[in-house]
Amino acid sequence: MTNTTGRSFSRNSDWAPVLYAGYDSKGYRQGVMHNYCQDGMYFESDAPLPPHLDLYIKVRRQQPIDFEPEPCKNFRAKVKWCRQVAGGEVPLYGIGVQFTAKSHLAYGTNIPNSNRPCDFCEQRGAGRLFHQTETGLLLCPDCFHHMEALPNSIETALERFLLGNVV
Fold first, then answer.
1. pLDDT digits over 29-43, tens only?
2. Which helix (H) or strand (E) holds 79?
């Protein structure tokens, strides 16, 4: 179902479990997406988030969000607003985010001060936060952002090459 308001893009009502984490988080928290559009989504969680926080978001369902030719399941986003949802026994927060990147690359965990080099550029990152994907690739922030921007077909081929063509 699509809602039209004074927004730049029409909003699609949908329900899906999501996992989200801040850039410097060690783990993901759970939430529930209630609607999305081409440039953002609304989800609810039991934890408040400050405006302008950068997030990784994973949509946890078989069918990805379908607002573009290659549907995505993973996003980077910036928190635009956060409000406590009225009613209910447990505090719940409604969170509006704007996408900053859409990806097919599976987000994993952040690792501070890794002694391994980046699997893409092979540079070591003393004092830097590295990102390990769910497939095991260890990427410095620059290479991780570069991989996010690639089309799905190139990203998949590059990831297979870096992993050694394993399935």
1. 899 999 988 889 999
2. strand 74-84
* Structure token pair of residue 38: 């081409």
Q: Which of 150, 123, 120 is nearest to 133 (CA)?
A: 120
Residue 139 near residue 119 (C-beta atoms within 8 A): yes
- 149 by DSSP, 3-state: which? helix
Residue 91 has pLDDT above 60, yes or no: yes
pTM: 0.60
Residue of 87, 36, 34, 22 whose CA lies nearest to 65: 36
Would you call 115 helix, strand, or coil by DSSP? coil
Q: Considering only CA atoms, which of 100, 109, 96 is closest in space to residue 22?
A: 109
Q: Look-up: residue for tokens 């090459």? A: 161
The pLDDT of residue 122 is above 90: no
